[in-house]
Amino acid sequence: MKLNILISTIDNRILNLKNILQTYDANITYIISHQVTQDLNHELETYIDVLSHRDDVVYGRLPNKGVAKNRNNTLRYLQPSTVSLIVDDDVILCENAFYNVLQAFLENPSADFISFKILDLEDKDFKSYPKVKQWHSLRTLTGIGTTEVAFKSDFVLSNQIRFDERFGPGSDIYPSGEDFIFAMDLYKRKAKMLYIPIPIVKHPHDSTGNDWNSNIVFAKGAVFARVFGYLSVIVDVYFSLKHRKEYKEQFTFYRYLKRMLSGSYDYLSRKCDA
């Protein structure tokens, strides 16, 4: 079994990959999508040239912004009959991370998708995780992030699953939620989705998923409309109640819920007009 490492990066952040790419391993291919929005200096051009001469690297360049577009560019290069792991450009790999991912699929051959744990920079769980291995449900997928997931490439290729480019950081419409939508699209297509409590990367606490600004709240409402359709109204109410302690310094419950409902309505109205 071979492993694709899917890495999305932008401009000079590609230099972070020096901490991710390992010594050559015939079973590992690094698929790098590099969004370039500015002139590249000599250091960047030199490093890109080094990457292009590695037999285990596939390098693709994009001229525009958007995390979902960047991730979709990595999916263009998926190799059949492999496992693919999504890795952000600012992570630190845990010991034996790539081996543990491959081993997880070998030991659980029926799984199409496996999520793992992320640690913060102090080696603590990035968020609350179950203590034991379990199959995912609709509920457990709610807080999933792409940098903790791996999947069988054949399932994504055969079902033509892609990231929704209207969502995620860098989007002019809904700047959040591309990771949850991707996971839910897999779920809707009956993927067998497993969680295993093994840490694979360390990641700083700077995700938009923990941001409560007005645009992100609006995007959350749109995400729920994308996933649940008109039932998103119920989900918006539930989510607003569940997280009120977390956003109470920025919003009242009613203002927060109104902003979420606005996002849901915006998405549904756009869908109807399409």
From TrEMBL:
Instruction: Kindly give the InterPro entries that the UniProt entry links to this protein.
Output: Nucleotide-diphossugar_trans
What top-level branch of life does the organism fall under? Bacteria
Q: What is this protein called?
A: Glycosyltransferase family A protein
